[in-house]
Amino acid sequence: MLSAFDNAMTLVEGTAKLLKFSEKYPTHKIVERLRIPDKIIMFRSTLQKDDGRMAVYSSFRVQHSDVLGPYKGGTRFDERVDLDEVKALALWMTLKTALVNIPFGGAKGGISVDPKKLSETELERLVRKYTSRLVSDIGPSVDIPAPDMGTGAREMAWIYDEYRKHREVAKGVVTGKPVEIGGSLGRLAATGKGVVCTMLEAVRELGMEDYTVAVQGFGNVGSHAALDLWKRGVSIVAVGDVTGNIHNPEGLDIEELITYCKKKGGVKGFPGSTPLKNIISCQCDVLLPCAMENVIRGRNARHIKAKLVVEGANGPTTPNADSILEERGVTVVPDILANAGGVIVSYYEWVQNREGFYWEEADVEERLFKLLRKTYARVSDYANTNQVSLRTAAYSLALGKIAKAMVARGIQ
Ligand code: NAD
Questions:
Q1: What class does CATH assign to 37-181?
Q2: Is 108 a catalytic residue?
């Protein structure tokens, strides 16, 4: 079983060696302070189902590091959620917020539950239970949750409302809310559009023309990325989700596919497509893994046909697969850069909530793309100057900043 947290720490340790942390900061234990999160909150959520039966779920919030600001990170509802995964996701948030220079630390939360198996009223009760258990640990200047796999604006509205009941009206306690209650315009599609923005930077650098794209995961991130590309006239030849993978070498109609998924609950059986066994190694020029961790591994990395992989999901590539892709000359835009659009617009939402002044969608997008392009350029320059991969460059820039902040703050 691959540990997502061990994989993430392998990269942190390797980069810390390259940056010579033990010589530069001999007494500060930078790596050790990243290995052990600031705080782990783990508890049982008991839910009374609509039919009166009880269900019990493991629930988590990991506050990884607040060295650069309040804890920030999503909330995942998925049966596979466990402490190791939440720790890894929280560590990636610490690195991501550092890389894109926004004043937050890293956190993540989740419940080991399949939300599709619950009614809407059951889900609301569960979210409220989860929030009431966390009210002393979250807050607009302490820890700010957001959506992740299996949650969205609806769940964020419940978190906001439950926090209001126990504490105060504080719009900035959670981001990714519905626009009607203080959510930011542009937040819903921000991660997917951000994936496309960084992908287009890489495509330009690689001089790719007339390329085809495959997208794994057709939820918030994957569907918005695919739709943005499709509207730009890019051919999406394969899409996959939990129901299966579909293929059309002539390109899929993404708008119709979104409508189809709303009715059928997944991509399987989409008219005009054929089923596809393996999406990771399918024939395409660009691969967007937008589902979950560890899908690109040693055993399939050698068969990937794409020249460019842009990580919409967090941690989709294992360190072993990463080395294979690097050896094979496949360019990888790493998760902490490629999917940072979500937390960037979450930051803009939090700023708008604090100011009580709301921006136009065009302003949100302009600021988002400007920051992502600037960050991509910093990462790419670092990679070229130091002859390292984009991932090592992104980790180096993020860890360099985190280390300086840790030293400045002394013994926390
Ligand atoms: P989501 O729940 O909206 O969608 C997840 C999609 O992945 C669904 O289409 C699901 O069917 C598919 N999927 C799940 N397991 C799969 C599997 N084993 N094989 C193939 N497909 C599978 O989730 P999301 O918000 O789109 O998040 C997807 C990824 O992006 C996660 O890694 C998440 O951490 C990351 N991410 C999300 C955001 C955000 O703003 N939502 C921000 C940054 C990163």
A1: alpha beta
A2: yes
